[in-house]
Structures are given as C-alpha cells and as structure tokens.
Amino acid sequence: MTGRVLPYDVVGGGPRRALVLHNWFGDRTSFAPLRDHLDQAAGSWAFLDCRGYGEAIDADGEYTMEEVAADALAVADDLGWDTFSVVGHSMGGKAAQLMLLDAPERVRSLVGISPVPASGFPLDEESWALFAGAADEPGHRRIIIDRTTGARYDDAWLSALVDRSVQRSSATAFRAYLDSWARDDFHERVRDHPARVLLVVGAHDPALGRETMEATWLRWYPNARLTVLPDAGHYAPEESPKALAEALETFLAD
C-alpha cells in the first residue's frame, strides 16, 4: 500500500486532537466501547488500523513498531494535523514512543493504555511459545486474554475477543509484530524524555500493570503519571470504557 495512508476514521470535531493506536489482539474496532463515552465536542479522535489488521488486513509491510509509527504520522499528515497527542494501547503504546522520537515537535503528549515499554517485554521460553503460537492457534489467544484480564470473564466474552482477533488480523502480521514489540529495545533513547505522559493500567493486568510501569515508564519519563483502573485488566477500552474516557479527557484537557 505504498503511496497511501492506512484506513482510519475520526470521531468528534473538537480542538484536542489524538491519534489512537490499537493493541496486538485488536484493530480499530476494539475501541468501539470507548468511543461511545468520548466528548466529541471537545476532541477529535483518529482511530487507525495497523497493516495486517482490520481494513488493512491485506496490506503488505514489515510489521514493525517503526512502520506503525511512520504510518500513523502519515495519517496525521493526511488529516492536516500539525500537532496532536498519541494514545497507544499495549503494542500501540510502544509505537507511540517512536512517534514521539521521530516527530517531537508534533506530539504534544502521550497516553499509554497498558503500554509496552520501550525496552520491550521479556518472555521466558514457555511464554514465548505461547505468544508465538497464538498466530495460528486461537486457543493460545484465549489463554493470553484470560490471563491478562485476571481470569474474570466467561466463555462468551473471551470467545468474542478471540474471534474478532482471528477474523480481523493477518496471522503473518500478528506473528511478525510480536518480534518487534516484545524484543526490540530502545529505552535509552527515551530515558529522561520531557514529554507529558499518562499511563492507564488495569488493576487486574498481571503483565503490564502498576509494577511494570514503575520499573520502566515511570523511571524513564520524568513527567509521567499513573492511573490504575480498579475494574479493568489489560483491555481497558472494552472492560472499563467510561472510566478510561474520563482519564483520557482529563489529561488531554490540561
């Protein structure tokens, strides 16, 4: 898809502009519950699909965080947005940091929702087999979603997320993105970065919750602050959309 931007849509028409990047298991439709709670008079929210996901499921690419960042900046160009904030969920949070590094004069602030640190996310041998195998095995995706939400949801909820993930992502892209978000390490490039950063995590997320944020993001970004949502795990846009919307809008209004 060289020469054209990724599929995206914009919610709202307000002056606070934000590009929104999805997680490894979702496309831009994963933010549907959140969109219903956003103040459309105050903000303009651009939701986009990464290559290999959603309406871009057939798009060729390298499937790296660097590519996601470049594609998202191209969307901003297409919108005519000179400055904006970036909201990234999980792997989207890692790509958002590269946008900050690539275009510091354009990115006003950054919000990470259970975001992957710039250092990546270490996985032991057993966990790596589980995550890598999730590209072709829906059962692996189910186990990961269940674990990262604190084993709090029934079969119907888990099946809905797994089915959407399988149907709206390319297995090739899904597997390739894992190498980039989990293994690539650029944390020395963001150390002591002055950007305003909000981290929003779920109390029931054992992987990318408070402890991980305190060991990574909060050490590297001196102007970062942390909000913990008591009723969410790793998928706050779907688990606790109203509380997440309130946290986002309070931060972006500052």
UniProtKB/TrEMBL annotation:
<dbReference type="InterPro" id="IPR000073">
    <property type="entry name" value="AB_hydrolase_1"/>
</dbReference>
<protein>
    <submittedName>
        <fullName>Alpha or beta hydrolase fold</fullName>
    </submittedName>
</protein>
<dbReference type="InterPro" id="IPR029058">
    <property type="entry name" value="AB_hydrolase_fold"/>
</dbReference>
<dbReference type="Pfam" id="PF00561">
    <property type="entry name" value="Abhydrolase_1"/>
</dbReference>
<dbReference type="InterPro" id="IPR050266">
    <property type="entry name" value="AB_hydrolase_sf"/>
</dbReference>
<dbReference type="GO" id="GO:0016020">
    <property type="term" value="C:membrane"/>
</dbReference>
<feature type="domain" description="AB hydrolase-1">
    <location>
        <begin position="19"/>
        <end position="241"/>
    </location>
</feature>
<keyword id="KW-0378">Hydrolase</keyword>
<dbReference type="GO" id="GO:0016787">
    <property type="term" value="F:hydrolase activity"/>
</dbReference>
